[in-house]
Specification:
The protein is 35% helix and 26% strand. By secondary structure, it is α/β, with parallel strands linked by helices. The strands form 2 sheets. It has a 5-stranded parallel β-sheet, sandwiched between helices. A 4-stranded antiparallel β-sheet has the order 2-1-4-5, covered by helices on one side. α6 (185-200) links the parallel β7 and β8. α3 (110-119) crosses α4 (125-138) and α3 runs parallel beside α5 (155-167). The relative contact order is 0.20. It binds adenosine-5'-triphosphate. Adenosine-5'-triphosphate binds at residues 14, 24, 26, 44, 46-52, 231. Pfam families: ABC_tran. InterPro entries: AAA+_ATPase, ABC_transporter-like_ATP-bd, ABC_transporter-like_CS, CP_lyase_PhnL, P-loop_NTPase. This is Phosphonate C-P lyase system protein PhnL. Belongs to the ABC transporter superfamily.
Amino acid sequence: MPTPLVVSELAKTFTMHLRDGIELPVVEGVSFALRAGECAVLGGPSGAGKSSILKVLYGNYSVDTGQIIVQHQGRLVDIAAAAPRTVLGVRRHTIGYVSQFLRTLPRLAALDIVAEPLTARGVAAAKARDKAAGLLSRLNLPEKLWSLPPATFSGGEQQRVNIARGFITDHPVLLLDEPTASLDAKNREVVIALIAEKKQGGVALLGIFHDAGVREAVADRIIDVTQFAMNRRVS
Ligand SMILES: Nc1ncnc2c1ncn2[C@@H]1O[C@H](COP(=O)(O)OP(=O)(O)OP(=O)(O)O)[C@@H](O)[C@H]1O
């Protein structure tokens, strides 16, 4: 099976345009590959650059140098150099991302928010909603909430909607930015099981987990970001 994601010699500097263009180098020389069916975890202290790396891989941030090569619909795409339209295609079909917080359109019902990534890929609405209902029920979201917009949900309820939305598709690469941060023990176990199923299905996962128990349960290996962190070197 081809390697789904190869990151090579990536460097990222933030430029603070509102602060006289001050430059904040965050990481450099970031190189690793993700294999199908593994869950690699980004490790290292706060501020080392873990979230920045995930966001760069998802095409949220530009890079200074380096390549992010992904197997996308039978061809190789370099996300670091791809046009925005290509990045959107990669997000729809190849790289999924579960952020810590739910950001979505207001007034949409939770069930539809979860089903939307599938309908966007052409799955029939009824089938997508069935799968969404299955995930929400596994994640113990009370059924009476499914028809409501999540704006007023608790932090943990919103996060479960977010997780269901991120896990509903079969993207071959899945990025997880602290998906269990606001969850109770029972739902953390559900997420651990969902991650194990993704691995079994050949998905390549890359995550950040501050919870040591979750990290130990899901990680096949730790990629220590300290080795790439620029702020560690200059301080
Ligand atoms: N959008 C941004 N603009 C400017 N600086 C940023 C931006 N995002 C992150 N940084 C800086 O980059 C550095 C790395 O931040 P990042 O969030 O990637 O670290 P992290 O390892 O994920 O930390 P944590 O474990 O605390 O979440 C920090 O010094 C942070 O201030």
